[in-house]
Design a protein that fits this description.
Layout (H helix, E strand, L loop, with lengths): L4 H20 L9 E6 L4 E4 L15 E3 L5 E3 L8 H10 L5 E4 L3 H8 L9 H6 L12 H5 L2 H12 L10 E4 L3 E6 L2 H24 L8 H12 L14
Antiparallel strand pairs: 1-2, 1-5, 2-3, 3-4, 5-7, 6-7
Helix pairs in contact: 1-7, 2-6, 3-7
Length: 240
Amino acid sequence: MAIDRSAIRALQERVYQANISLRDHGLVTATFGNVSGIDRANGIVAIKPSGVPYDQLTPDKMVLVDFDYNVIEGDLNPSSDTKTHVMLYRAFGEIGGIVHTHSTYATAWAQAMKPLPCYGTTHADIFYGEVPCTEVMREEQIKRDYEEETAVQILETFQHYDYRQIPGVLVACHGPFSWGDTPSAAVYHGLMLETTAQMASIALGINPRLAPIKQSLADKHYLRKHGKNAYYGQNKEEKE
């Protein structure tokens, strides 16, 4: 099958812009963090190159890989997290973008090895319930392919969650991943995960006995944006 070159160039541009927005939102430090996007028709993933500073990125530097992790264009190494991204694309068939960061508050929750409960309506607007934390990677996993096993951790966790309703996860001892139907949507969910993690941390400092909000209130806020009868905003694609 011939590759649609214009579609691939457009994908690289979207992934580049999403990576730059990570920096602009303050979600990354140095070169930590990455965004990828997928063209499912062509079977190609575009992802940030490994270790390249954000101010040196350009759309054509977004590395193209296939579902077997082969670089199909370019001479830069893809992100070290590429295998994690590709495995999530295989498993989560409705997503079009993935983000990984080490943003401060979400990473703190991951390092604490705790799921992020829904303490308020800001959280409920985006995540339909707690954002789960994976189990700590087992010794035999660490000795195997680390990046593939990171995806295994996430997929094991999402046997009990719906990736469409909870577009993010905390990888124990590591940091957050988020996803969405586009690279920019994945960044938005990563930003909201960081924001709600910060809010939760502050709220727990004010009230250490804080409990999650009641289910009816969580239902109202999530479903008014994402349910079949959603009415928030001007159209169903809007995020704010």
